[in-house]
Amino acid sequence: MHLLIPAAGSGKRMGSSQNKLLLNVLGQPLLSWTVKAALASQSIEWIGILGQPYDFPAFEALLAPLHSPKPVQLITGGETRQQSVFNGMQALPQQAKFVLIHDGARCLATPDLFDRCTEALQHCQGLIAAMPVKDTIKIVNADGWITDTPDRQNLWGAQTPQGFDVALLKACHEKGKQEGWEVTDDAALLEKCGQSVKIVPGEDTNLKITTPVDLAIAEFILGQRLA
Ligand code: CTP
Ligand code: MG
């Protein structure tokens, strides 16, 4: 399985001056933990990391000590996550028929989750890891008034990995670009193109590290796993 890791963001919500994926988590850059989980997954055979070129020296420095037996390629990302994944799709090796996309910011995903997504891709053309939401979700208008409360039973929180047939995801990205769609995950492009996307049970701990409290939680969880 080929894996793309979008890592070309800046981490505005983290409030740090550098890419949040380079912040220290238990003595290592956050992105190291993500890559280590992917390397430990039996099914992943190739990794492409989307980054901004100014971060490449730091990415190379964090990759070196991992001594990856699998090819790891740095690919120039774009201005948005969507553009970064678009670039990654162009850079996939020709033989890639399926691809997993996994956010660099989800450093707590386990190797088993990558393997379960790989296995599930044998039975569909698009899937995402997801978990039922815990909070009641409100739809709120621009003035701060609630306009609706969707039934929580039908609500799932999208995670990554997300997995796709390569030709299909490329076509949906092309369509999205033509139509000017702006989406925050790849599944949404398939949905807009009328394609079916399946849910794979994600992991409760598979947080996207977004704000400073998430960093503290990640350190706690990773520390527990090492203990
Ligand atoms: N990402 C990317 N290219 C971008 C923007 C984001 O590859 N132009 C990546 C991030 O590096 C991250 C993942 O997409 O691994 C999920 O994005 P998010 O959590 O929003 O990260 P940032 O965009 O860096 O954070 P923020 O939105 O707070 O600025
Ligand atoms: Mg972002």
Describe the structure.
With 227 residues, the protein is an alpha/beta fold. It is 33% helix and 22% strand. The chain contains 7 helices and 11 strands. The strands form 3 sheets. The protein has a 7-stranded mixed sheet, with helices on both faces. Strands 2-3 form a two-stranded antiparallel sheet. Strands 8-9 form a two-stranded antiparallel ribbon. β4, α2 and β5 form a beta-alpha-beta unit. α3 packs across α5 and α5 packs across α6. The longest helix has 15 residues. The radius of gyration is 17 Å and the shape is globular. 37% of the residues are buried. The site of cytidine-5'-triphosphate has 22 residues, from α3. It catalyses: 2-C-methyl-D-erythritol 4-phosphate + CTP + H(+) = 4-CDP-2-C-methyl-D-erythritol + diphosphate. Keywords: Isoprene biosynthesis, Nucleotidyltransferase, Transferase. Its EC number is 2.7.7.60.
Task: Describe this protein with a few key phrases.
227 residues, alpha/beta, Spore Coat Polysaccharide Biosynthesis Protein SpsA, Chain A, 7-stranded mixed sheet, two-stranded antiparallel ribbon, binds magnesium ion, isoprene biosynthesis, transferase
Task: Give a brief outline of the structure.
With 227 residues, the chain is an alpha/beta fold. It has helices at residues 30-40, 56-63, 81-91, 111-120, 166-179, 186-192, 212-226, and strands at 2-6, 24-25, 28-29, 46-51, 72-76, 98-101, 126-132, 139-140, 146-148, 156-165, 198-201. The protein has a seven-stranded mixed sheet with strand order 5-4-1-6-10-7-11, sandwiched between helices. A two-stranded antiparallel sheet has the order 2-3. A two-stranded antiparallel ribbon has the order 8-9.
